[in-house]
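Closing statement on the LJ64HWYM sub-project.
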Amino acid sequence: MAVYTQVSAEALAGFLRRYDGVGDLVSAKGIAEGVENSNYLVDTTTDRFILTLYEKRVDAGDLPFFLDLLDHLAARGLPVPPAIRDRAGIAIQQLEGRPACLIRFLNGVSLTQPTPAQAATAGAALGNLHTAVAGFDGDRANCLGVGDWRPLLERCGTDLDRITPGLFSRIDAALAAVEAAWPHTLPVSVIHADLFPDNVLMLGARVTGLIDFYFACRDVRAYDVAVMHTSWAFDPLGAPLAGVGPALLAGYTDAFGLSGAERTALPVLAKGACIRFLLTRAWDWLNTPADALVTRKDPLAYLRRLDWYDAHPEAFA
Ligand SMILES: Nc1ncnc2c1ncn2[C@@H]1O[C@H](COP(=O)(O)OP(=O)(O)O)[C@@H](O)[C@H]1O
Ligand SMILES: N[C@@H](CCOP(=O)(O)O)C(=O)O
């Protein structure tokens, strides 16, 4: 459960009164999924909404970038949930001392074991996103890009070995190899940077929602494909799912295209993505207070993926 900030019924009822046409509060439930922000499912007399209170890793100064991006994508027909504006036209509110937004609820479920057919449409959705970001001139550097991984590794230090012996040296060596081979000259665009299965809502093989844009930034475009591959092509423990990786790539390639140089770079981009998610998970694993209402994510599931990419250099051929 990710609920860091409790919202009282009285405060929420008052908050909803800032908006026209959203109705009166009927119920609000903390949402179990997610690790970054506090999310509530809010039902009113007229509709259903998501209430998000922005926590630790989200810098309030970045919220206009994220919300402008959502508006841009929604205007181009992508199934993303724009933030709702109050009657003064304000989307970013304050609630219980945190920045907060009321967000349109989208139907659909997130998958834990996608099939190849579902991966293909999800890959195509990323391709459509990369098409739709053209013309969006907002800018945000990746605060968890390749240059940020070594400082994070150093901050975790040999505490990593408390997760599994030898983890610090393993990641130190893998990161050195990734840094040396990083493809700095590939095309850059706005990317989602965290399009895991839990951030794609689906009904059958249809994508009904792309959510959680709070790591979106400008970075190497093919890195987005690599992030998706690391999170979709494996089960939650890190074992590969037959046919899913190739289907994801085929869906993306049909929708957007992938140059030879981008495809060649995917193994190093994927290993970089493994290191990025292993390190943020490890940091949270080592530093989340025992009483926090959040389910920590397993860093070692990303070590297994890293091992798999090392053993399968042909994965993207
Ligand atoms: N617009 C939305 N429509 C429907 N469900 C949503 C929406 N936004 C978030 N959710 C639900 O809330 C969960 C957590 O949201 P997410 O943005 O991923 O949180 P976090 O940023 O904390 O990871 C999602 O997995 C999904 O179940
Ligand atoms: N996707 C990342 C962490 C961010 O979690 P999310 O719930 O915001 O997608 C991971 O799984 O490590």
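The first helix runs from residue 9 to 16. With this model delivered, the sub-project is considered complete and its resources will be redirected to Aim 3.
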